[in-house]
Each structure stands twice: as structure tokens, then as C-alpha cells.
Amino acid sequence: MAIGSVFMAREDLDSGRLVAPLGFRRDGSGYFLLSPLPFDGDARRTALLHWLREQMGQALPAP
Description:
The protein has two helices and no strands. It is mainly α. It starts with 5 loop residues before the first helix and ends with a helix.
């Protein structure tokens, strides 16, 4: 038994090395992308933000 993030275990769940018989529950934790400069007007930062959101969305289990 373990407690962990679906984002950290996604590959092992997909491959069958791990199982989540009780699924995952939201616990109020989150991930934040911080930058010393604003994202507005910076295509590179904006592209990174969109890519990260896409990757995180793909890692979430189906409801």
C-alpha cells in the first residue's frame, strides 16, 4: 500500500506494475508554475504553460 500522486505513478499504472483498486481522491494539493517574469507577451513561457497543462490533463484518470 502506498500514498502517491497519480501524476507520479501514471506510467506504472498504465503498464500494470501498479494498481489502484480504490482509485485516487483529490486531496486539495496542487502544482504551481512560478516565474520571475510575467507570462503575458512571452510565447516561450506561454507555450510551456500550455504544454504542462496538456501533459497533466493526459495523466489524470478517467472519471
